């Protein structure tokens, strides 16, 4: 994937899409293959290492692994950034407050204030909080696993606009999606997997349900 581009990973359940993304992020061990970032081979050991390299991951199950539901918007936005914005080992509270308020306003997160608990937010607003924490961390590569799962139509449109803005600003998105409309409508390129292997690439403007499914079932 290149800067300013949305590349999607498609495939049936069990194709191995999520496992590849978790390996890139350092959440699981790479057993074969190489990872290149910004044109150079890298060995990402763990998620903290990935964050230092400006890589972020929004997991499919945001309520279990994407957010601390019993914590506030402010605390969630600050979480990946704590090692980089501490003063003498203490949390940089002014930075945390100003940054959370900035992204709450910029992404139009609907909540009373930054002290609102994330568990009380709608799915769309929870996803905006996740995006906020990675934007605040200055990530250049954002991996989104089923980014609009469980989100209503209006919230999806807002989130798609935020995704497009991120890549227009020079970022890069790798998106895993099982939704054909999302794959075809949002992607510059689509990489299709089946049985843990890459079966092909399709340019976004040439993608349709038929050629995606043909590659997704190639080894069946």
Structural features:
9 helices; two-stranded antiparallel ribbon; 220 residues; alpha/beta; globular
Describe the structure concisely.
The protein has helices spanning 17-25, 47-52, 62-66, 73-78, 93-106, 123-136, 153-168, 180-186, 209-216, and strands at residues 6-10, 35-37, 40-42, 55-58, 86-87, 90-91, 141-145, 172-176, 189-194, 197-203.
Structural class: alpha/beta
Radius of gyration: 18 Å
Average of the residue pLDDT scores = 89
Name the beta content range: 15-25%
- Distinct helical segment count: 9
Distance between the terminal alpha carbons, to the nearest Å?
Answer: 27 Å
Describe the overall structure.
- By secondary structure, this protein is of the alpha/beta class.
- Helix content is 39%, strand content 19%.
- It has a 6-stranded mixed sheet, sandwiched between helices.
- α5 packs across α6 (123-136).
- The longest helix has 16 residues, at 153-168.
């Amino acid at each position: 994937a290149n800067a300013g581009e949305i590349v999607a990973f498609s495939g049936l359940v069990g194709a191995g899409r999520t496992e590849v993304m978790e390996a890139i992020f350092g959440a699981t061990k790479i057993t074969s293959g190489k990872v290149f970032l910004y044109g150079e081979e890298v060995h990402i050991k763990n998620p903290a290492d990935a964050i230092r390299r400006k890589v972020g991951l929004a997991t499919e199950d945001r309520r279990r692994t994407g957010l601390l539901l019993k914590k506030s918007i402010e605390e969630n936005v600050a979480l990946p950034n704590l090692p980089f914005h501490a003063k003498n080992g203490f949390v940089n509270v002014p930075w945390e407050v100003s940054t959370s308020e900035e992204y709450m306003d910029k992404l139009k997160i609907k909540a009373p204030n930054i002290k609102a608990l994330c568990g009380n937010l709608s799915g769309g607003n929870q996803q905006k909080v996740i995006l906020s924490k990675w934007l605040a961390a200055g990530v250049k590569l954002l991996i989104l696993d089923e980014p609009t799962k469980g989100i209503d139509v209006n919230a999806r449109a807002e989130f798609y606009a935020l995704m497009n803005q991120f890549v227009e600003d020079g970022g890069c998105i790798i998106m895993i999606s099982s939704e054909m409309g999302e794959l075809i409508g949002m992607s510059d390129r689509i990489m299709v997997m089946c049985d843990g292997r890459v079966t092909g690439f399709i340019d976004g403007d040439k993608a349709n349900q038929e050629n995606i499914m043909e590659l997704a079932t190639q080894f069946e």
